[in-house]
Amino acid sequence: MSSSPDPARSSVRLDRAIFNPGAVKINVKGAFIVDEDPRSKSPVRTDGVHYEGHDIRLPHHTGIVSHVAVDIGGSLAKLVYFTRELDSPDNGGRLNFINFETHRIDLCIEFIKELKEEHEKANGPSPDQLCVVATGGGAYKYYDKLKEALQVNIIREDEMECLITGLDFFITEIPNEIFTYSEIEPMQFAEARPDVYPYLLVNIGSGVSMIKVSGPKQYQRVGGTHLGGGTFWGIMSLLTGARTFDEMLAMADQGDNSGVDMLVGDIYGMDYNKIGLKSTAIASTFGKVFRLKSAAEQESGTEGDEADEESEQTNGDVTFKNEDMSRSLLYAISNNIGQIAYLQSEKQQVKHIYFGGSFIRGHRQTMNTLSYAIRFWSKGEKQAYFLRHEGYIGAVGAFLRRKPVNWGRRNSIDGASV
Amino acid sequence: MSSSPDPARSSVRLDRAIFNPGAVKINVKGAFIVDEDPRSKSPVRTDGVHYEGHDIRLPHHTGIVSHVAVDIGGSLAKLVYFTRELDSPDNGGRLNFINFETHRIDLCIEFIKELKEEHEKANGPSPDQLCVVATGGGAYKYYDKLKEALQVNIIREDEMECLITGLDFFITEIPNEIFTYSEIEPMQFAEARPDVYPYLLVNIGSGVSMIKVSGPKQYQRVGGTHLGGGTFWGIMSLLTGARTFDEMLAMADQGDNSGVDMLVGDIYGMDYNKIGLKSTAIASTFGKVFRLKSAAEQESGTEGDEADEESEQTNGDVTFKNEDMSRSLLYAISNNIGQIAYLQSEKQQVKHIYFGGSFIRGHRQTMNTLSYAIRFWSKGEKQAYFLRHEGYIGAVGAFLRRKPVNWGRRNSIDGASV
């Protein structure tokens, strides 16, 4: 359907889109988030796939979109695709969000294959065949696999650049997307700001990246930490046998971290007033384990009895509740990220801190901890911002960095620049 | 033996010593570290007690010292006491270092009781009966217990102030105490600096405190993290069944963290050149666990089979090596502390960073990680400093903050100010 089926010219146009991401246009007029039960969607398969329930409706976009975007991280592959809704009163369409476990990339590929077939069914054979914009490490690691299995063009985009494009889009274009969080005022939607830059983006996936963004094309990865979502999942699955992230988060909701954490009161027997540490403050994550395990060993009289190999089974009499361990580690990892993010924001002289990535998952304790950490360390000067599509920032960015080939013809008037 | 047995006057003198810590004098002329096998000491008991092998010899101090100092932390109680060496050619004496597990505080009390008896045997009944200077949280938590069991005067000193007094002493008075560390140049002793302040002291015990010190009496706890030694011990003992810190460190020496950590190469399949991340860089601590466990579950066909309660036992077929887990967590915790310490040093505009606390234990990997983190983040501008008595900074500080009552009489000439 393109006016120019010449591959050489297509490629020039493509290059322009890649090298001029700021110039990519999408019709986001009147865009809004659709809240519905993700189970109402008919999944291709149920295992290793997670449908999100917050589609973004683009009521004024009627053109054909001939690409999907996928952000393949260490643990999850996040997919964003557009579907037209010709039967809806305002026509238009929506952005759909779905993720797959990265080690089951085959499921993701199968899903994209179906989208490709649907695209061909709807639009007939044309030079505008579906292409895939891929970002994240998996865009490199699985490049050959994707290309071979899908037989489509795979355009690779840099992970950091996609994150920025995606976040800028969410900040400036989507109402009720960005919010602050506190126990007293959960989910206060933030007003769109005209002065978006500079900001610090803290993306929490398996690991954590912190990116200072000074302008649409000005950014620097200033730091990060490898204590991230993968650490929580890994240690928790080994300690508790829990299988899914949601299971672990549900346990954390029921736990009491003081069952495993050493509090200031455990050391002092009271507040440590001189430096303002309350007795309930955490002194050492999992710090109670040493004392309780050693005390139990002492009582059972096995310590020092190193020849007895079986004692390892019989002494560890103290058991720690899965819920308590889960709450402790979730708090520790979130709080640690919060502290480092604050310190980086100070070093980089940035006031606004956005937290994204699949680790957050809209979980209250996580957001509360991150939010509290920023308020606490900054003495109320700074705030943490969250996103409803926190896991899809990079994928949406990748989606937006590809200009659909037929876009200019049908949407030249009402496209908003992102 | 004091010239003034009047308790009221003693107490005035005591107050002066407490409130004027900078004025406390100790004869450290020619002090040096004695390296000998700690096993050559005859221990009272062997369980839960750890003798150090780096006594400090004070060849010119001949006076009676009628106090011992103990720093009771969340996991360890560190004891410093002075012994005279009347049979040695130069007379004098030495500072001894020993620690006990805090949950076995009774052993520590028993040990102090023996010191008290020896003191009485040597000096006869006198108003200079042994007293105990106590610091750390346990000085509060176990105050009544110590007082009742020992029947001696217990003087409490603030933990942060003791750390500073102790570190200042080590920096300025003890040769071959402070060193820098790198793989290429392990243990390079630092020259004594005339301009000691300001510095950042990072004390790593069960938890971590970071203290900015601007002068002998000017300090502020600027931060810390509860991911410390207690976290390493706690999680490792639960995951591996190892019982002692030394056992865990020995395992770490044999491990390969890439057995459990997700590396950049695991995500990208190559370096992530654009932002300078090598494929061998750690992306997510324990981040490989998710992928490997999920893949194993998928193969054994148990996923989604939630009714089968027994599957939890049968599926977790992947096992991770204790050595690999230990190395990974030791690295993660050390590196995290290193990063936060660097960022705090930036915020506080401090160039010198001292790492102390029992977590370090002279362990190569730990020191190398901390050292590398400071060099890496500061682009070579800053350095990490370590101490041979890293675990005893607070205890030594507490020891020095008490002026022995007979001190002035015998050592008024050659005492050096600390």
Automatic annotation (TrEMBL), chains A, B:
Keyword check for Transferase: yes
Q: Where is this region: Disordered?
A: 297-318
- What superkingdom does the record give? Eukaryota
Gene Ontology terms, cellular component aspect? cytosol; nucleus
> Per its UniProt record, what Pfam families does this chain match?
Fumble (PF03630)
Bias kind Acidic residues: ranges = 300-312
**Gene Ontology MF terms in the entry:** ATP binding; pantothenate kinase activity
Keywords from UniProt, A to Z, are:
ATP-binding, Coenzyme A biosynthesis, Kinase, Nucleotide-binding, Transferase
Q: For this UniProt entry, which segments traverse the membrane?
A: none
BP terms from Gene Ontology: coenzyme A biosynthetic process
PANTHER family linked to this entry? 4'-PHOSPHOPANTETHEINE PHOSPHATASE, PANTOTHENATE KINASE
Instruction: Output this protein's name.
Output: Pantothenate kinase pank
Q: Which organism is it from?
A: Aspergillus steynii IBT 23096
